Structure formats: structure tokens, C-alpha cells
Amino acid sequence: MIEKDTYKTIDVAPEPSFFKDKNSKFLGYAFPVQNEHDVKIHLEYLKKEHHSARHWCYAYQIGTETLIYRANDDGEPNNSAGMPIYGQIQSFEVTNILIVVVRYYGGVKLGVGGLITAYKTSAQQVLEASKIIEKTIDIHYNISFEYKNMNTVMRIIKEKNLNIINQKLELDCEITISVRKNESETVFNLFDNLYEISIKKV
Description:
Layout: E1 6-10, E2 17-21, E3 24-32, H1 36-49, E4 55-62, E5 68-72, H2 82-91, E6 97-104, H3 111-129, E7 132-136, E8 138-146, H4 150-159, E9 163-169, E10 172-180, H5 184-192, E11 197-201
Antiparallel strand pairs: 1-7, 2-3, 3-6, 4-5, 4-6, 8-10, 8-11, 9-10
Helix pairs in contact: 2-3
């Protein structure tokens, strides 16, 4: 069985979505993120941008094989905001994404059911407005060799259509390549079986 080696994500933030219920306004934002530092930057920006809002509830998921996720209700009743948002991330099967729903309180309580619907709908709308793309899960290898073996290494890179991420070509050469996960073992063995050439996972 071939393991899945692709994942879905977004590479640009779409226009925010807008949802209104009993005078409360909900603005949904989606951002591509690579780590928790990215999450922090977007949250700080939105809190400045919407400083008079009441809540900035969010959920994010990061990673392809090992997933890190978090859902935050930011003062709303337990599980009425963060989890409904996270549920949409799961439903659209996306990762490396942050969704924030900013709420301006309109003076009328919505109740837990109303909040769940509002946060879920906001997250769903912004995901529907997003351009979801598919990317491959890639493994990075570092290949070390002497300059005289350059042609051998380059031939394999060309034949296998491998991506070079960076290279240092001197007397001792180093090339870092990126290989789609499902092909990584084959590529590793090709280089590993060559005399005077070493390969290791980065």
C-alpha cells in the first residue's frame, strides 16, 4: 500500500468572512502558518486591528505526519468557539493553518448553541473562500562527495528530477535535495550504494 504523501493547506490568506447574529458580528480569518511563532504574530496583529472586539477565538493545526493543534475559546463558554473552529479545519482536511474568529459583542447573549453555530459558520465561510492547495510531504537529504564525483551525483538528480535546495560546490561538495516521501527510500538507496558518496537525512 502506498502511504499518503500529500497534504492540503492554503498559501495565501483570503478576505475575512462576515457573519452576524443578534447584533454580534463575527469576522473569520484564515492564515497559512508553519509554526507557533507565526500563530502568535497573526493573533497580535488581529488584536491590534480589532482592539475594541470582545473575543479573538481561534484554532490551528500544524504539521503533516505529526500534528500539533490547539483550540482556544478566549473567554467564551467552554468548547463553544475553539472546538467548532477546529472541527472545520478537520472537516476541510487542511493543515499548517490558523483560523481566528473575531467577535464584536452586540449586547444580546447567543447561548452556547448560538455561539457554536456562529463560530462554526465563520470558520466554514472563510475556508470556503480560501484557495485550498495540495502539497507533497518531502524528505530532505544531504549528499556529501568529492568534486570528482560531481557528474555521477548530478546525473541521478537530473534523472530523478530532484529538487536542489542548496549546494556548496568546492573540493568537498554538499548538496541538499528534497524528495517526495514515497520516493525517498529509492533515492536514498541510489546514493547510498555509490562509492565515495554519502547521504544522510536532514
